[in-house]
Amino acid sequence: MQLGTRWAVGETPPTNLPEVVTYAVSTVEEELTATDVDTAGWRWTLTWLEGKPVVELDDGTVIRYNDLEDSATITQVVETEPSDYDEA
After folding, report:
1. Which of 69, 66, 36 is nearest to 50 (CA)?
2. Predicted confidence (pLDDT) per residue in 27-67, tens digit
3. First vs last Cα of the chain: how many Å apart?
């Protein structure tokens, strides 16, 4: 059994994460910095699902690890503004 953990945006991720997941975390953080998003108080949450890390940011961004390909997939929440074409 592996226990999860939490850490603040900008802090070093846990050392037991695969390198590609750590890279994905830094990529998300760099994008937030580049777009001037205020991440004060934001934290990452690491959980283990079937022995694989799943990392979620407070804004809903999720990073999942694929051990067969040694890859990480970043899924971000997309907020859209309603338009005149949206159905009521």
Report:
1. 66
2. 999 999 999 999 999 999 999 999 999 999 999 999 999 99
3. 47
Q: What pTM, to 2 d.p., does this model score?
A: 0.86
How is the chain split into domains, by residue range? Answer: 5-11+20-75
Who contacts 39 (Cβ-Cβ below 8 Å, separation ≥6)? Answer: 9, 10, 29, 32
Distance of CA 31 to the CA centre of its chain: 12
Residue 66 forms beta bridges with which residues?
71
List CB contacts of 74: < 8 A, sequence separation 6 or more.
Answer: 24, 27, 28, 61, 62, 63
Alpha helix (H) residue ranges in the chain: 19-34
